Amino acid sequence: MTEQGFSTRAIHRGDHADRSMVTRPKTMPLYETSVFVYEDLAQVDDFLSGNRDNYMYTRLGNPNQRALELWGASLEGGEDAHVCASGMAALLALLGSECGAGDGVAAASDIYGGTHSLLEKELSRFGIGAQFLSVEDPREVERVMRPGTKILLVETSSNPLVRVADVPALAEAAHRRGAKLVVDNTFLSPVLFQPLAHGADAVVHSTTKYINGHSDATGGLIVSDPEWIARCRRFTQNGGGLLSPFEAWLTLRGAKTLSLRMERHTANAKDIARWLESRPGVARVHYPSLPSHPHHALAARLFPRGAGGMMAFDLSGGLQAADAFMKGLSFIAFAPSLAGVATTISHPAKTSHRGLSEGELQKLGITQGTIRLSVGIEDVEDIRRDLDQALAHAT
């Protein structure tokens, strides 16, 4: 073959280096490509017949995405999984693939603010009704669920007061009303709880949080039965909300240490929660492993390995004390996200729940002095020391 020109060689040389490899890579490579090459029409037919090991276009699927899906299905104990560009994109795919005009979604009244907004401001425009209700009593949930409700949506542990949902009882209640139970398991991770094993029909995660764990990649994960996952995948492919290969690669890289990290997050959080209860200026600590938490017994039953690294506490001095507390911290950062290896704090009334009125905040139990604490995996003595100096600053 005639020697190709410089531009041609610049484009094509090295593209097929993997074809001659004798051994395979130990770690999943990054497939940062928008499209895959076919040798003949038989390969196209193979892709269109549904071969999951065949790829065409990254919006439709990519090996990095599939690797994370297989990881998620395995860890959550599901049959199949689907990854999206964010936790909200995953939730949209779940709801949008199941519900249409005239259907309803019932959600916990203390659901994440972004989820509340998606239901109330976006899906309602397409005729999907939203009902927000307390999930404290599953029998009451069953009684008040509206006709036509297709999904009951709850969080394993709520944001920010870590109230625990009785997933087995809520699954039974939803099923008796002909609805499916979807559980956002972001706060616990599959290491500490697996909702599908307790009756849930689908699990959703913001992989941005514990699964990635390093605050450097955004993503979402759905785990359910193959039929629902296929509908979710079609929804995402048509809407263009699939996770990028690099984000998928980063997330899987972080996910490999999830079990070790959750063990440390949980141990540190339990230590800090007990310590905070004795500190001046702290009116209340919200953490399910504490006997003072209203769902302590339920958490002990559902989460025998621990309640995770998320907690909240109320400062007696309200908003002024909260502001002074934040200014008094040294290495603990104010960051309106959570679940990274580093300890962070947030102020729910000013961030995640900013859109709620004072009356609505009070109804949920959130005060202007409420601080959400995402306990990291640093040495626990250092976390205590930084919190202690900030508390002194606040009081």
What does this structure look like?
This protein is α/β, with parallel strands linked by helices and 395 residues long. The protein folds into two domains: 41-255, Aspartate Aminotransferase, domain 2, CATH 3.40.640.10; 258-394, Alpha-Beta Complex (Aspartate Aminotransferase, domain 1). The longest helix is centred in the C-terminal third of the chain and has 19 residues, at 258-276. The model has no long low-confidence stretch (mean pLDDT 94). It has helices at residues 6-12, 41-48, 63-76, 87-98, 113-122, 138-144, 167-176, 189-192, 226-239, 245-255, 258-276, 296-302, 318-327, 358-364, 380-394, and strands spanning 80-84, 104-108, 129-133, 149-155, 180-184, 202-206, 220-224, 282-286, 310-315, 333-334, 344-346, 370-374. Helix 3 (63-76) packs parallel to helix 10, helix 4 packs across helix 9 (226-239) and helix 13 (318-327) packs across helix 15 (380-394). The protein has a seven-stranded mixed β-sheet, with helices on both faces.
